[in-house]
Amino acid sequence: xxxxxxLNLEQTQKLIMTPELRQAITILHMPVLELAQYVDQQMLExxxxxxxxxxxxxxxxxxxxxxxxxxxxxxxxxxxxxxxxAKREEISEYSYENFLAITPTLQEYLxxxxxxxxxxxxxxxxxxxxxxxxxxxGYLTTSCEEASKATGQEIEQVSRxxxxxxxxxxxxxxxxxxxxxxxxxxxxLPDTPAKAEEFIRDHLNDLxxxxxxxxxxxxxxxxxxxxxxxxxxxxxxPKPGRKFSSNxxxxxxxxxxxxxxxxxxxxxxVNDTTVPRLGINRGYREALQGQADDEAKKFVxxxxxxxxxxxxxxxxxxxxxYKVVNCIIDLQREFFEKGIRxxxxxxxxxxxxxxxxxxxTVSRATASKFMQAPQGVFELKFFFAxxxxxxxxxxxxxxxxxxxxxxxxxxxxxxxxxxxxKITDLLQEKGINISRRTVAKYRDELGVPSTSLRKRY
Length: 457
Fold this sequence. Notes:
Layout: H1 19-29, H2 32-45, E1 49-51, H3 71-76, H4 106-117, H5 121-132, H6 144-151, H7 155-165, H8 178-187, H9 196-202, H10 204-208, H11 212-219, H12 223-233, E2 257-262, E3 265-270, E4 278-280, H13 282-287, H14 294-331, H15 333-338, H16 348-355, H17 359-366, E5 370-373, E6 376-379, E7 387-389, E8 395-397, H18 398-410, H19 420-429, H20 436-446, H21 451-454
Parallel strand pairs: 2-5
Antiparallel strand pairs: 1-4, 2-3, 5-6, 7-8
Helix pairs in contact: 1-14, 4-5, 5-7, 6-7, 8-9, 11-12, 14-16, 16-17, 18-20, 19-20
């Protein structure tokens, strides 16, 4: 076998991931708030980018007079636009600064009560340590032994300080277990049902497992009385500190697309108001035509291409998002007209073929984006739901089936709740070919308990 080198000329086509293409893909995937932050960052890095105001294109008005007007005579004139200036009254103005902006935390609220209730500096010192170890749910995360070692005080003193804190508001704060939290709330209630303390202390796990008859036999009461105790238990707060939780976890949804119905037609508005309108600085653009050195021209050319690419990518994102949402509205017309029961199964490929885009492009255009419609705010991925086949040969979406399942459970007889097999039979009577396993799956996703847990005596 003879080996050797040779030189061949071939012509091939391949897709190269250029920086411009990578940037366009990144921008298409971004929600509107991330896009606004990204644009702000690009404006800091690229001096050729600048914000454009729509009023900049309007010609400036020429001054009416060359000399300064007589301002004192102007303000004394009461005939301007027919407005008669009445005597101003002193009115107290209110602003947002007059209102409390941040609510106190749970620890701050407990320390305020401790400063009034503690009799000695030692109790105050131990109490502040214990309060510092209470989590956002109101539970104590340390033991009395650990607190005794950390503060250098006797366990009896730590226990007294903890007992003092457990009497504070909110009721149940400072507990170490769920049972202790509920029992503390029970002690502060004027009227409690009989055997409620024993029920909380010994049978919470049985209640979670739906073992009503076992609890009734142990407490020597009827199953109906056990359910009454369970109903009373639901009035207590298992997490007494959550009402003081910080607002840092609150996240507001800003829709990327707004859909309005006007004269029977749906109008699509791509929400890009938070994204500044970009333009190219004229001064740098004129520098390319002036007498500048080669290095300066190369820098301006690179930044000019980057700025133009960014503007094109933002515009392409807007057009792609508009086409995809318009296709969703056409395919889900019955949903927008009649409600969630008429939501149809839909796939990314189905939309991609209609709008003549790649399936991955549609996936990026709908990822982490929300639509504000007359029916509410929905994530765009919500419309791409799976489904099962019905008797007519069409597909029924999973969301529509879940709504039917929820309605059947809400209308059932609590003394004789519907089993998964019975719900399956009722859905099949409506023409939906669904299995019992799928019904159980949808029921778990909805958070609907099993038949034994829904039964009422």
